[in-house]
Automatic annotation (TrEMBL):
Gene Ontology molecular function: any one: sulfotransferase activity
Main location: Golgi
UniProt similarity note: Belongs to the galactose-3-O-sulfotransferase family.
Name of the protein this chain belongs to: Galactose-3-O-sulfotransferase 2-like
Cross-referenced InterPro entries: Gal-3-0_sulfotransfrase, P-loop_NTPase
Organism this protein belongs to: Branchiostoma floridae (Florida lancelet)
One GO biological process term: glycolipid biosynthetic process
Gene: LOC118414927
Key word Transmembrane helix present: yes
Pfam families hit by this protein: Gal-3-0_sulfotr
One GO CC term, this protein: Golgi membrane
Alphabetized UniProt keyword annotations: Glycoprotein, Golgi apparatus, Membrane, Signal-anchor, Transferase, Transmembrane, Transmembrane helix
Amino acid sequence: MGRGPVVAFLGLFVFGCAALLASYWDIESFKIGSQPLSWAMRSAVSSGLQNKRDIKADLADANERVQLTEPKDALDANETIGVHSSQQQRQQATTCVPKKHFVWIKVHKAGSQTTTPLFERFAFNNHLKVLLGAHRGPTISWPLPPREGDYFQTKDGGLFDALYSHSRYNKTWLEAHFPDDTAYLAIVKEPFTHFKSCLHYYSVPRKIKLKSKTEKNPVKIFLKDPWKYKTEAMSQGIRWDKTRNAQLFDLGFPMEKSDDMEWTEKYIAQLDQDFLLVIILEYHDESLILLKRLMCWELYDILLGAESRNSRPYSYKSYKPTPEEETTYRKYAAAEYAMYQRFNQSLWEKISQQSPDFFQEVDNYRKVTKHVRGFCKGGKKKELVIPASAWNPEYKLPRSFCKVLKTDDPVWRRKSWQQLKYPPLHKVNIPFNARTNLAKFLAAARRDSEENKE
């Protein structure tokens, strides 16, 4: 063999080894759960490797990881998914530290089921110490704060990092179990829409025998005089009402103060200070981009697979109230409307403080989401590449990522349970299922009212 072929062979061998080492270094450097590197740092440490991510999100592997790789089957390069060349935005990103302590108040029937998967995924990917119910169900404790036996302590006996199961907001209890830098987050939706959803989901018309010979729409029947119907329920000594101020109740509001608007306004103002962000369902995309910015998360972290989860059709879902009916309900649920107005205003005030490209990022998010959902509906492509933009690096998504987006709550809770090595499940008496036990809770409230009259 001549000298030329030998040199060529040695050159190829050295190049191959170097590439293999670089690939290994790359994989080990970007495991989900390790401290995220800034985009500038990634460029420096990768020594010329292209800044692209291969998200291998197979739930069968607890060590999910993000890998830089060459793109395949990329989206059309001529399609504009985001505004490129925002140097200032990238420089700001290098100084941004992701927040990894959060409490997500999962408000009932407000779109929380649709939004919660992003918190579940983030907690699992970052190995966060999640507060989970001892029965591993969707609710930890409601309406009272968790008590000993309702949940498991962390292995080290320390504070928790994250909460995403149903639990009513109790500032004192939460501050005692979560770090000082915890971000408090929640979601609410337009009160009348929420009222209709609760009316259907909790079967209120049937349980309070809401009937009329001339009218089939329970909304119209109820709003003729909502005060005459005894819809207050009672559980564990706490009163609540699924037709009145129910979202605000999940945020810790005492039902007894429903008619004291001066006290209510002060309580809502305090909530506005306590919470980093309250997502408004009617402006879901805008809220998620604001969440991404305030939490210093990435586009990948806020991707959602479905437009809505746990959505149910019913006959009066699209019913629009008459002006008189709307006025009546506004009086009946005045505290709820004050809450919604305050958080809606707060959302737009926070958005106004963002950089001028905020709505461009919202548009980018919508386009990316559309591509991801289209990819996950089926097709021959094994992976989808989301091009880099001013707001995200380039992501390479394998088809297994679609499985992650479709993962439901019980699976996420089980995965986190296993990851945290919590003890085996044990039976817990769960008296707080408002849907299945509403009739019993309504009766309890009526008995209590009668006893107090005597």
